[in-house]
Design brief:
The protein is of the alpha+beta class. The protein has helices at residues 4-18, 147-157, 162-167, 177-186, 199-220, 225-235, 267-270, 279-285; strands at 23-28, 49-55, 58-63, 66-71, 76-81, 96-102, 107-112, 120-124, 254-257, 262-265. Belongs to the FPG family.
Length: 286
């Protein structure tokens, strides 16, 4: 799933390509992805793109007085095209979900791999009306996201596990499964640790969050959309690296699996050498 650093890189890339350009049309190929009907997607035709921004993991293309908002979910992505594509012939079939065509034929395709479809698109006059955006917590890279702000979030979470607190978009916007793993590894903190922690622990976690996200944003800056997934994977230290050696201590990176997701961690760096309980694995070994 694209998280804050990748979506920010998409914003930078698309802003340079789209700002000031005129939309010829927006084709919705998979009708299930469009979550609004008024204003219609056809109302964007002939309009000028005035900017590109993000809200957490949501991408926001500003078109006149309207906003084309997208959430790429787990398997969605954008593919830039230099020329007018052939018409889509199998509506609703395959990975193509939507298509934006500029007045010179260039533009991008919105695709989603796999059979579980979660990608969503809205055309709205106010992005705050989009479900999910209206519930977002503060952005961790905003100047006003201070350690005091973070302390208030942790205090409200109480004994909740810190991994889930970092991932909850209503707490902090933009951090997902991958970067929460990375942040906790840098902070040398167990994913199961309660959000209620000492001042020193909170400071260490806050610094780890800032460093991890800002370094990821810097690495992704200027990377073409087609290369962002590869760049993200190469930059991760523990997430998605089960069985490999920890780059810090050399211990074997382990995994905890849930029904529809998993996370990775280093026992030596994060849990005092003790493997965390993996309920799915435990059931398989019985």
């Amino acid at each position: 799933m694209p998280e804050l650093p990748e979506v920010q890189a998409l914003v930078t890339d698309l802003a340079a390509r789209l700002t000031g350009r005129t939309i010829d049309r927006v084709d919705i190929v998979s009708f299930a992805v469009l979550k609004t009907f008024d204003p219609p997607a056809s109302s964007l035709s002939g309009q000028t793109i005035t900017g590109v921004s993000r809200h957490g993991k949501f991408l926001d293309i500003e078109v006149g007085d309207k906003h084309l908002v997208m959430h790429l979910a787990r398997a969605g992505w954008l593919r830039w095209r230099q020329a007018e594509p052939a018409p889509a012939t199998r509506l609703g079939k395959g990975p193509l979900a939507a298509r934006l065509v500029l007045d010179d034929g260039s533009g991008f395709d919105v695709t989603e791999a796999g059979t579980k479809k979660s990608l969503a698109i809205w055309v709205v006059t106010d992005p705050q009306t989009v479900p999910g955006i209206e519930r977002l917590g503060p952005d961790p890279l905003d100047d006003d996201f201070t350690e005091e702000t973070f302390a208030q979030i942790l205090a409200a979470a109480g004994r909740a596990q810190i991994k889930g607190v970092l991932r909850a978009q209503s707490n902090i916007a933009g951090i997902g499964n991958a970067y929460s793993d990375e942040i906790l590894h840098v902070a040398k903190m167990s994913p199961f640790k309660p959000a209620a922690m000492t001042d020193d622990e909170r400071h260490r976690l806050f610094e780890a969050m800032q460093v991890t996200l800002r370094e990821a944003v810097a690495r992704a800056d200027g990377v073409a959309a087609s290369e962002l997934k590869r760049e993200k994977k190469e930059g991760l230290r523990v997430h998605g690296r089960t069985g490999q050696a920890c780059p810090v201590c050399g211990d074997t990176i382990r995994q905890v699996t849930y029904a529809d997701s998993n996370f990775q961690y280093c026992p030596t760096c994060q849990t005092g050498g003790k493997p965390l309980a993996d309920r799915v694995l435990s059931r398989l070994l019985k």
